[in-house]
Amino acid sequence: MKSFKILAVALLGVIASCTIDKTDYEAEIGSQVPEYYEFKEAVSLTSGNYKISIEALNGTFYKGYNELHFKVINTQNNQSVNASEVTFLPILSTNGNTSSCPHEYNVSYDATNKYFTGYSVFTSETAVSNSWKLYISFKVDNQKYEINKDILVEKQSNKNLNMTTFTGKDNEQYVIALISPQKPKVAENPLVAGIYKYNKPTTPAGTFPDPAQFSYSEVSGYTLKLDPRMPEPSMGNHSSPNNQDLTQQNDGLYHGVVNYTMTGNWTLNLILMNQNGLILKGTVVPTDFTPGVEGVKSELFIDTLF
């Protein structure tokens, strides 16, 4: 009987702690986790009589995945023009070295909305040692225009849009970026991520910036195995049922389901497998319930909070 009372008290302590943490996280969400659904101009670049305006959510470039809209405008009459062959190349300079990030170099035209669409997964924020510059080109009336401009990439304060970079067991460089949901619910949530690989150059570098030296592509036919846990000591690293691994769909992105059973800190423990079933990164997380101890994580993971 005495042992039963001790166990009951311990369980009540875990439940109480869980409830307190949940309340704290809900308060944090209200003040710190933003949602942005409106595209605004983040930067514009001008060459001759033409300006290209680049729109992003909230008019800001963030570390992580950014959907981008491109509009080419005649500055003489402020009207859109019939441009073609629009290219987009972000370059990161770090202590004299240059690199890029996953991006769509040849952006595509959306005839319905009358703008070009693309994306960029900025892998770092602008800092003293890190600076980003965009290199843009387009054609109007068969004349090519080339422009470049420094930009500011800001910290992504919404942890549900976090990202990670790593080298796989195949010695290739990968980037995984969360795309949605921005603000999950206590429910089974559709989970969307982009998975990209750096394309190692096969030819010597041409005139800078040579896009062949900075190329990335969406990986094809991979599987991203998912095991969400609550790693806080008070949560015991518990998981949830009905999660679905992420697989590639027609849009090139990876779709799955994550079941958040309560608000708070969650870790998306991941295992990336290529089309042949080879594990490129990630480890299985123990299923033990460990109250009072910080949860074990996969070697490949992304933390979220809502």
TrEMBL record:
Sequence segments annotated as region (Disordered): 228-250
Alphabetized PROSITE patterns for the sequence: PROKAR_LIPOPROTEIN (PS51257)
Domain of life the protein comes from: Bacteria
Residue spans of biased composition, Polar residues class: 236-250
Annotated protein name in UniProt: YtkA-like domain-containing protein
Species whose genome carries this gene: Flavobacterium crocinum
